[in-house]
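Take a look at the protein record below with the fold in mind.
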Amino acid sequence: MSAPNFWEVLNRGINTGVPTIVKDFDMKIFTETSRLVKEYDIKYDPSVYVPDVDSLADDVWKAGLELFLSTGMYCMDSRRVIKFDDSEVKSALSQVDDKVEIGAGKEKRLATRRGIAGDKPPVIVGGVIESDISEGENFIKLYQSIAQEPLIDGLYVGPPVHTSEGHMLRKGTPLEVHSGYRMAVWVREALRRAGRPGLHFVSACPSAIGDIAACSPEHGVRQTDGIMVSVIAELKTDYEALGKVAYALDYGCIRGTHGGAVIGGWAGGPEGATIVSIADFLGAVMVYQHNVGPVYGDHGLTRNPGTVPTSSFNPGMWGTELTGQAIARNYRGLNGRFFLTAAGPGTEMQLWEIAALTIAGLASGRDMFCGGGIRRYKVRPMLGSALENKFHAELGHSATGIKRGDANELVKQIVEKYRDRITKDGGPWGHTFNEIYDLDTLEPRPKYVEIYSRVKSELVDMGIEFKY
């Protein structure tokens, strides 16, 4: 049986899927995942950050596929389960493209697969996750400063701002329509000022109406740009996400999809989270239609338990790198990596976290790096800068070709530099954009350049040969 088109998927989600109570769906994830962990003998090793066992990665993939075929994906609005059979999944996977073109003009990039320990540099989609940057000029200057970095291949923007015309922004309201449009206009102005008008950017507004309002061939998201669509943990979607996909397919822009499991939730421990992350990923492939048109993913994340969704230490890193390898070995499309750090920008700790995540992700076969390394946990506005984007771009172009075993040893050394500084609330708050950068010159202040240079120098001592 061939893979269903999106409109058939929507029909299953809205009309024909089996009505199910969400508690029952969650419990099925837990019981099935617990069974699969035992059946496939998946065991977490806390001493390993970058696994190096192909059979383990393949077992995680097989278990994730089995879980997805058993559970399907839950639509939270209709309370129905969207299910697929094995032949439909295999058909969709066989149709996925192994490359995607992003950007336009001089900024056009062809993103292709790297493979595990590949020596080709990744595509760097920089940006700031949950930026909460003030409207207008400061927003423009932040993204201009990132776009000015020559190794940046695109921008991740969002969720953009927390106000609209100075008023509190609430998801799905008319204010978000206006905010989505203004955000896109500001990004275009930032790219114009940076001299890179064709640079790719992906809009990540909280709701469909925000991203739809951002779409404009002249002023906003173009067909060479993208809309971010997330899988809700665990194995869930909603009408907002499905609405984004519907519009992106009609408009013709790229879909950037994202998802991952939470350790300690319905997925269970790190072993179960790896399985659920693969099932989440397959849900994105089938429901968000990876086999149709331009698409890239950012999947296979396993987030550490706690209030701060980090992945820069174990067990989150073990699970994330294992799932990354499972996808790299069994999926023909592109898969990226968000960086969720405990520390905020402008700190030495965050740079070390980015170093560990970059080296591990490169060795594990990630094709793209997205988001700029800023943590999601926001303690105050204006957190984020171009400096951490510049750092992970330079390292992403320099630490290629490292084998998994060597990467594991490097990451062990690096994690020791910050592991004891991680608290239940994350790590150091970090510094704001206007503290790190001179807003008149858009250059980093000497204090932060010194921190940056010191970390790079220590990485050189560890054997990293920087090309830039």
